[in-house]
Specification:
about 120 residues, 1 helix, 11 strands
Length: about 120
């Protein structure tokens, strides 16, 4: 597919798809219009992190929101990244959460664990 996703600081997330721009923001149900990072998983779903509303998954039709009520350690996120195994790596001040995109199962690595491994 010829798609390019843009994280914006105050306008949600925008996609350039086959020469046409579409902007997704609060009118599409997003709870935060400040998007920090965007990643695509192996199924083609788009994941993005926000300033204060956790992360979102966009499957091309609808948005799913993941926050601390879904098990995230923090909603103030630094970055997200996907891998070839269907996982979403979620980086925040408290450490790293690993979300299995297929099962929505979360694993955690907290700052204390990271510090001890590198000492």
């Amino acid at each position: 597919m010829n798609r390019i996703w843009f994280a914006t600081f105050g306008k949600g997330v925008t996609v350039l798809d086959n020469g046409s721009f579409t902007n997704y923001n609060e009118s599409y149900g997003l709870k935060d219009k400040f998007v920090y990072s965007v990643a695509e998983d192996i199924k083609g779903d788009i994941w993005f992190s926000t300033r204060s509303a956790g992360i979102y998954k966009f499957d091309g039709k609808k948005f799913a929101n993941y926050t601390t009520s879904n098990g995230l350690s923090d909603i103030d996120l630094s970055a997200i990244k996907t891998d070839r195994n269907g996982n979403v790596l979620i980086v925040h001040n408290k450490g790293i959460d690993l979300l299995n995109a297929q099962t929505a199962q979360l694993s955690y690595t907290q700052q204390e664990q990271i510090r001890h491994k590198h000492q």
